[in-house]
Design a protein that fits this description.
With 459 residues, this protein is an alpha+beta fold. It contains five helices and twelve strands.
């Protein structure tokens, strides 16, 4: 217990720690009985001193137990807060993963829609090509029928031409034989003039028919050749168009197959991303549930901590009550303990309750007594439970005290327990001892055993 008190106060022998001396001697003398008497007095004084030192230790037992309990709760609060923050970060990471999956799904959906549009467009082109091919096939059939008709006509005309050529040949032979007979011989060989005229008229008619046959044969040959050439050209043109359409249809079909593959691949990727999104969303929900559980646990621990701190405040009040000072009149404090930005106020915080104010300041900034009073605590009150925060408590009145937390331990507080200070006296230096993320002062005001908001009492 003496070790606990030493750690709590970190003090050395003070001027008022020596044993009280007896009254001054009025006579001189010596002897064994006097030496024995002096020895007895020394023994009694030493025993009284030890008893006087032991009594405060026994009185501090509830404080030490309470400090250990408070430190355990604060450590549990810190762990619970860290767990809640970790779960929040994990939930944020899973939310980010779900967001990335959704964005990827959107991109894949756009790609899928583009590929689907391309595939549909190619499908329309293939349908048009099929219709063109059917039209070409119909035209080919029509052209083939025309070619067959032309060939049939050509064959008929060829037969007619042969007949006409035979007839023309006969006429030529007849004309040739008649050309061997002179008109005089034809006249003399005719039985009458009428017969001669008939024979002469027949020769003229044959000549006219020969001319007509020759023209007809020439026209038939020209028309037949033209029809055959036209039919051949049409057939070649249709064959070329059919080949072009066939190739175009094959190319479009290949491209459509490609885009259909892209559409299927995009759908498969979307399905995979959807599974990832669902998994990330589920994990984020689980992390949030864990965060909620940690937050509830943090709230419960904070309530327990508040209850413990209330008891601690009672003990601080008891220390102030033993100071023998006057009763606090509710006036404002003479000065601020330090000047700096207020980083955290008095009241609810992190699901719990902050029983003081935090004032940020550079390391080793001098802290000053905000009131005149008696120093009741100097040291590390939570060291037994692992918290290394250096604390100074000053009783400003028998029912009002102030607490300084997180003081530096390299430049140890200037004041000692039992020391009387005046407002403005230096008491220590800003540090980062205990659980803190940066140099600052945790400043508390305790009135009638309860921590109250310091702001109404600040000048």
């Amino acid at each position: 217990m003496s070790e606990m008190r030493r750690l709590l106060t970190r003090r050395g022998p003070a001027w008022d720690d020596a044993a009280r001396m007896g009254a001054p001697r009025s006579i001189r003398g010596g002897g064994v009985w006097k030496r024995g008497l002096r020895t007895g007095i020394v023994v009694l004084a030493t025993a009284a001193f030890l008893i006087g030192q032991h009594a405060p230790a026994l009185a501090d037992d509830p404080l030490a137990d309470l400090l250990r309990q408070k430190a355990d709760l604060e450590r549990a609060v810190q762990i619970s807060r860290q767990n809640a923050e970790r779960y929040r970060q994990v939930a944020g990471q899973y939310d980010a993963a779900a967001g990335q999956a959704i964005a990827h799904i959107s991109e894949l959906a756009d790609q899928q829609n583009a590929a689907q549009s391309e595939a549909e467009a190619l499908g329309y082109q293939i349908a048009i090509a099929e219709e063109q091919l059917q039209l070409v096939a119909f035209q080919m059939n029509e052209t083939k029928a025309l070619i067959d008709a032309l060939k049939s006509d050509a064959a008929s005309q060829s037969r007619l031409l042969g007949q006409r050529e035979q007839q023309y040949g006969r006429h030529l032979r007849l004309t040739y034989r008649q050309a061997l007979v002179s008109p005089l011989e034809m006249l003399l060989s005719s039985s009458s003039l009428a017969e001669f005229a008939g024979r002469l008229q027949a020769m003229v008619l044959v000549n006219r028919q020969d001319v007509q046959l020759a023209n007809e044969i020439r026209v038939l040959r020209t028309e037949t050749a033209a029809k055959q050439e036209l039919a051949s050209d049409k057939e070649k043109e249709i064959l070329g168009l059919q080949d072009q359409v066939t190739k175009q249809r094959a190319a479009l079909a290949t491209n459509k197959l490609k885009y259909d593959g892209l559409v299927a691949e995009a759908q498969s990727s979307i399905d995979k991303q959807e599974l990832l999104r669902q998994s990330a969303t589920g994990l984020a929900g689980a992390a949030r549930q864990q965060q909620s559980a940690a937050t509830r646990e943090l709230g419960q621990l904070n309530k327990q901590l508040e209850q413990t701190e209330a008891l601690y405040e009672d003990l601080v009040a008891q220390q102030a009550a033993r100071s023998g000072l006057a009763v606090f009149n509710g006036s404002k404090l003479p000065l601020w303990p330090i000047r700096g930005p207020l980083t955290s106020g008095f009241g609810p915080r992190w699901g719990g309750f902050h029983n003081g104010i935090d004032i940020a300041a550079p390391m080793f900034t001098t802290l000053r007594a905000a009131c005149a009073g008696e120093v009741t605590t100097v040291g590390r009150p939570y060291i037994a439970s692992g918290d290394t925060a250096v604390v100074v408590i000053i009783a400003c009145a028998r029912n009002f005290g102030i607490l300084y937390g997180h003081l530096d331990d390299k430049k140890w507080p200037i004041v000692k327990v039992g020391q009387r200070v005046q407002a403005g006296d230096p008491i220590g230096y800003v540090g980062m001892t205990g659980w803190t993320t940066g140099p600052h002062l945790h400043f508390m005001t305790i009135l009638n055993g309860r921590a109250v908001d310091p702001m109404p009492y600040m000048p």
